[in-house]
Every structure is written in C-alpha cells, then in structure tokens.
Amino acid sequence: MSFWSAIIFDFFVAFGVVVGGSIMGGIGALIGHYHLTPMATMEELVGQLKIWGIVAALGGTVDMLRSVETNILEGHLGLVAQQVCMLLSAFVGAHAGYLLIIWLIRGDLP
C-alpha cells in the first residue's frame, strides 16, 4: 500500500469506527431500552470511541510505537515522519467522526 493510500485508509477506518460505533450504540440503546435516550447514549459513546478509532486504524498502538522507537534509534527519520503522518491522519479521522456525531445530535459544534 502506498503512503497516500495508507493515510486515506487510516482516516476512514478511524472515522468509521467512531461514527458506526456510536450509531450502532444508539440503535442498541433504543432496542434494549437502555437507561439513557439513544441520543444521549450516542453522545456518551462518541467520546469513548475516539481512542478506539485511532487504535483500530493503526492496527494496535504498541506495534506502531515500537516501530517509531526502532526507526528513531536507527536514524530512519523519513519513516518516523510517515508514521507520525499516519497517526495524525487517524486522529483527524476520529475527531471528524466525533464532530459529525455531535453536530447531528446537538445541531452545533463544540
């Protein structure tokens, strides 16, 4: 996979985990008669799912952090920069999903 393909892929995986997880959680709250309303459940879940969106997009943060450490120690700063870009892409995707759900629930952005 090329660098730009990986950047786009990481963005959308993180975005999808946050958006899909919160919507499915809201549906589950509706079907299961959860103590919160579906919208309140979605709002609660969306904040919790941001970190999991990033982790899912990167395939596990421990491996990525180990790889960054190895590349820094070996002096491969170009690879470190690519990995940091992938991390930022996953973060932006997760945050964009968060903002979308908050906007859909509240009608405004935080």
From TrEMBL:
TM regions (residue ranges): 7-31, 80-105
Superkingdom of origin organism: Bacteria
The entry's keywords: Membrane, Transmembrane, Transmembrane helix
Protein name per its UniProtKB record: Sporulation protein
Species of the source: Novibacillus thermophilus
Taxonomy of the source species: Bacteria, Bacillati, Bacillota, Bacilli, Bacillales
